[in-house]
Amino acid sequence: MTAEIRKVTTLGLVGWGRMGGVMGRFALEKGWTVTAFDPSAEACSAAEAAGATVAASVAEVAAASDLVLLVVVDDAQVVEAVTGPGGALEAARPGTILAICPSVRPDTCVQMAAASREHGVHVIDVALVGGERGAESGALKLMCGGQSEAVDACLAPFSAFAIDVCHVGDVGSGQVAKIANNLLLWSCVRANYEALTLAKRLGVEPGKLRSFLNVGSGANRPLAEWGAQRLRWPKKDLDVALALAEEVGVDVPLMRSLAPLMAELTVDDLARLR
After folding, report:
1. Residue among 7, 178, 235, 236 flagged as catalytic
2. Superfamily grouping for domain 177-271
């Protein structure tokens, strides 16, 4: 079953947490009508205080919204929010767009798109790049997979909290793009840490060294923003990447070595090299 894509005039947001709450507040400030749901009573109170209409379920959010942003934690929560009891597909009108925003497996997005298609609902995956700092400044970059017309229909609401929207390919492609991005991010963080640690041990002050490195051939964005990384997601990102690489038979020895190295790294370790 196919349905014409709805014109987006109302937003739904499932998951009023670190990322979702900030995105929701920016959307409200830009004049969008937002209906929100979160299983946490505290989060619901925050959503209501920000000006959102608080719903009693995901289904109630979907019934009131042309575009539903699923800003939950993992694959299980995405599946529950879309196809579970009280989920979006119980009430979403034909033509509604569901945007899967957390870092999840690409095949989860494909599965949700297939299930939603039977209800005339469109699914896109909208991988959020920029982390909490990007969200807090309204400067997220969105890597999107799915029908290009559905992504285009979301450009206006996306502009409330994002500065760049890239349509990568079919549904699930946005997640693949984010996996690639984050593998490079965590590789740079660890490489920077080891290089700066060696320099400090050899008597060179890391802060002064960074000013040179950032204009040299070793320049990279994590180095330019050194000490701002919160290190909340490397384990999840690397676990997903390693599992997918194994499934498709791609050897990634650097990433296998990186996972335990990132696991032992803390925010305090980075701060000591400022």
Report:
1. 178
2. N-(1-d-carboxylethyl)-l-norvaline Dehydrogenase; domain 2 (1.10.1040.10)
